[in-house]
Design brief:
Blueprint: E1 13-18, H1 21-25, E2 27-29, H2 32-39, E3 51-58, E4 61-70, E5 85-88, H3 94-102, H4 104-116, E6 133-138, E7 145-152, H5 153-163, H6 168-171, H7 174-181
Parallel strand pairs: 3-7
Antiparallel strand pairs: 1-6, 2-5, 3-4, 4-5, 6-7
Helix pairs in contact: 3-4
């Protein structure tokens, strides 16, 4: 298998995106705050109306069939509008299926809310903070290949809860614990 990620080479986080219905179905917009990162990749700028195939490495598997698009729009009507960069994939693609599986709690929550709203969730469904999940996207050393990782807000909450009341020395590595446990009473700083 060809290497796509080089831990010695600096890579960039290109996107941190809260999971929503669009991401679980057909893709996601790249927020304006991240667009300059995407447009400055070595692969080159994507002009309005252009699209380029991209691949995503996610949970140990390469997913093809996605594209990065710079949506065209009426420049006369929306002259000052910034680019509309999007990652797009088919709802039946392996990548979309993987998104729904990996972010199953978001998918289930949003699906239930959409049913409760009669399938009309204008503006999207708001997921409670404690249930939010995120997609993190990184650049790689391969052109138009990106690494995706998932982040669940509950991960840090679970760790904090598990560590509550545990002394630092109790979870340090044995080597660090050994060093910390040695105290030299003869060591001092002279003030003369």
């Amino acid at each position: 298998m060809q290497q796509i990620y080089d831990y010695e080479q600096e890579t960039s986080i290109l996107l941190k995106k809260e999971v929503d219905w669009s991401l679980l179905q057909q893709g996601f917009a790249i927020p304006k705050s991240y667009q300059s990162l995407w447009q400055s990749l070595p692969e080159g700028r994507i002009e309005k109306g252009e699209k380029r195939p991209v691949k995503f490495f996610f949970d140990g598997k390469m997913y093809e069939g996605a594209s990065i698009n710079n949506q065209p729009f009426n420049k006369n009507k929306y002259g000052g509008h910034s680019d509309l960069l999007q990652i797009r994939y088919n709802e039946t693609s392996d990548l979309a299926k993987k998104m729904r599986k990996k972010f199953a709690s978001s998918y289930q929550f949003i699906s239930k809310e959409r049913v409760a709203l009669g399938g009309k969730a204008k503006g999207g469904v708001e997921i409670p903070d404690e249930l939010k999940e995120y997609l993190i996207c990184y650049s790689t050393i391969q052109p138009d290949v990106f690494v995706i990782e998932s982040l669940y807000v509950g991960d840090s909450t679970d760790i904090k809860q598990a560590m509550k009341g545990v002394l630092e020395a109790e979870y340090e590595s044995p080597a660090i614990k050994n060093i910390l446990s040695k105290h030299d009473n003869t060591a001092s700083i002279s003030t003369t």
